[in-house]
Amino acid sequence: MLSIVANGQFPRTLYPRHLIDTADVVICCDGALSTLEKHGIVPDVVIGDLDSVCGRALGRFKGKVVRDPDQETNDLTKAVRYAVENFPQERQIHILGATGRSEAHTIGNASLLMEYAGSYPQLEMDMVSDYSTMFALTDSETIHVGEGRRVSIFSPDSTLRIKSTGLHWKTDDVVFDNWWKATLNRADRDAVKLEFSHRSLALIVLD
User: Fold this and answer.
1) Burial 107-125 (b: 16+ CB within 10 A, else e)
2) pLDDT score, position 55
3) Which regions of the chain does DSSP assign to beta strands (E)?
4) Measuring CA to CA, which residue among 22, 54, 50, 200 is closest to residue 128?
5) Statement: residue 57 has pLDDT above 70
6) 127 falls in which pLDDT band (50, 70, 90)?
7) Would the pLDDT of 54 be above 60?
8) From CA 177, how far away is CA 186, in angstroms rounded?
9) Phi, psi dihedral angles at 71 (to 5 degrees)
10) Residue 59 has what pLDDT?
């Protein structure tokens, strides 16, 4: 298991912290380095354009720092790309610290999960915070969420229809032409089946 820590709100609750503490590999976006140090966590890799890391910190992590000057991608995407290229044996990636502190970053990072799902279908990838777990689907799937859990579905594809079984309010006729259309649903059983009308992209948020 590999964990990536971004420079958003650092998790305080047990589960997301467990994903960092027990990871085989921890990749840190450069802006989060001081936060990890504060919590006594030593990353295996620090990556980014390094514009937000002081020289002394770089010295302390000599040999673990990767400078990626690409201005067309954010540090989270740089970290994901590095993980895929350098740790191909890791099939499960958890992203922490990617939400909070900035609404714009939260929305942008959440949407990136759909891009990653399309680009790296071999990976199980999610984004975990103190409040939710997010992941993307590219086709029909049965997801185990736990009865009573809140489930929200987002998609950039207004032609997509998702037939649902196990949700309190069926999504069969939902047109995904705005973000709120399938939010704050509830699971009436442990497993929820989502049947896509065609291969596409959807973001699932479990609160």
Assistant:
1) eebbebbbebbeebeebeb
2) 60
3) 2-5, 25-29, 45-48, 65-67, 92-96, 124-128, 133-137, 141-144, 150-154, 162-165, 182-186, 191-196, 202-206
4) 22
5) no
6) very high
7) no
8) 21
9) -90, 0
10) 66
